[in-house]
Amino acid sequence: MKRLLCMIVPLIALFGINQFSAKAQSPLKVVATTSLIADVAKNIGGDLVDVTAIIPTETDVHSYIPAPQDIALLVDADVVLVNGLGMEEGLLEIIEENAPNAVIVSLGINVLSSDHTHDDEATPEVPPHEADYLGIYGAEIECDEHGDEKAEGTHTEDEEHAHGACDPHVWQNPLNVKIWAENIAYAFSEADNAHVPAYAANVILYNDQLTALDSEIKSLIDEIPAENRVIVTNHNFLAYFAAEYGFEVIGTVIPSASTMAQVSPQDLAGLIEVIQAEGVRAIFTEYSANIDIAQTVADELGYDIAVVSLYSDSLGAEDSEASTYLDFMRYNVNAIVTALKG
Questions:
Q1: Over 90: is that where the pLDDT of 304 sits?
Q2: In which element (H, E) is residue 286 found?
Q3: pTM: predicted TM-score of the whole model, two decimal places
Q4: CB neighbour list of residue 24: distance below 8 Å, 6 or more residues apart
Q5: Pick from 305, 256, 240: nearest CA to 278
Q6: Residues 91, 64: contact at Cβ < 8 Å?
């Protein structure tokens, strides 16, 4: 009996050590609201994380309706990642109830107004592409759950409404995604401090890729004559791209940063006049949203204009040309350049 006990005790100890080791090495359960955030998280976490996106690829994020299994994902997650700025309209309630410590990956980004135009505030001292930035998210401004700006300090209610809502589409500028990456790495390090060096190294590698992507985009855009860098979009989803790379968004089919807004006949008539006056060469729509209204506008113009679909709020399917964030941006930029370079 004594010999048997001597054999069993080491086995129990070994089993316990193995169980502890397996637990220590199990990946973090990470839930991201969008496929875009999920892809960045996979690059930062690598094999140390198991990432699930709530909203599927090729889906309109603005109109997504949560399912019961989404609540279970949030409850079981070690880290929950959200865009913020009112992007996750349909998920706000279940996130607040089931993931109150969700990490807002867009904190620290210089935020645009969703009423972004290049003409209203530009002066010789303030270039057009810098005129409508509201401030640094989380430091200089806050945005409520609907994306409405709440400026810090002593702004009156009228002054805040004059600025309009915060534009949530920050990822359309890859330099903003560097901030996503840093925020995600910090969140992973807080949840798993045994692997801080790995997360830090992955941020450096991924941000180097984003720097290279930014240079690649600038080289491609050089092919577009300056006078052709005037665009119309389905809804206001390209403002960060336009501001960074010298385009002017002169109008949107849906006059909002959300695809859920209503469109009036007067809005469309005004947009048609602006397009005709500016000689716009393309209307940029989204794979995840209905393009019928945009096509109607194109048909009413009296001249040929391209209606070009881009990826906007989510990645393409796994086997598509936009299955990662880097490829998402490359696809969109190539489509824009092809439509506008003449």
A1: no
A2: strand 282-286
A3: 0.84
A4: 194
A5: 305
A6: yes
